[in-house]
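2024-03-11 09:14:02 DEBUG pipeline.ingest accepted 1 chain
2024-03-11 09:14:02 DEBUG pipeline.ingest length=259
2024-03-11 09:14:03 DEBUG pipeline.predict start
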Amino acid sequence: MNPPTDTFEDFFAIVRRLRVDCPWDREQTHASIAPLLVEEAYEVKEAIEDNNDTELKKELGDILLHSVMHSVIAEERGAFDFNDVVKFISTKLVHRHPHVFGDTSVKDAGEVSENWEQLKMKEGRRSLFENMPKALPALQRADRVQEKASKVGFDWEKPEDVWKKVEEEMEEMHEAVRGGEREKVEEEFGDLLFALVNYARFIGVSPEESLHRTTNKFIRRFQHIESRLLEQGKTFKDVDLEQMDAYWNEAKRGEHEGG
């Protein structure tokens, strides 16, 4: 007979049983399933972007499974249990929202965010960037670093000033390219990207999402080229760049007409 599946207690019992009776689940460790948790987080993000509530419900369940599985594994080795996880996050939320659970007053979300960073420093952190995952996508990590620095006043005043910095970094990159030293080129290219991320923040654009959408757009248009070649029974060896550009522009026109 199948076990009950209606409550959180039922779910927890299922996970505990898997750790005992399923050979695969029994072998898993924090390290072995960590990459899967990252993958599940991206699937949640994709469901949100697609406005797909059905998929979002499923993917949030997968995230919950990972939270419980990690807690059960930790409990088995005597480190902590799920109740400790809940208590810790609840205590942190109360502490970092004194404008809700205390007497602090705030005027807007920006001030809430500033207070959040200050409270984290009071908790014993020696740097704004402690506990920031090094494995974050590079554009997203740069954006978060700049955002955190801005919360304590280390920031440009106007978008125009940031753009001047972009132009300055672009010229330095060109100079490095002319010099031909690969290490210097990589350094200056990184500086240029960092400056562009900063400018994106000033004009209210997510660099990670912008590049993601542009990459998807490139894929759509390139797939149109592939489709047109397939229709004609041709391969890339049968056409030149001029013909591929014609199909590319055809795809662009289709997007504009469809929009």
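2024-03-11 09:14:41 DEBUG pipeline.report The chain has three domains: 8-93, 138-205, 209-258.
2024-03-11 09:14:41 DEBUG pipeline.predict end
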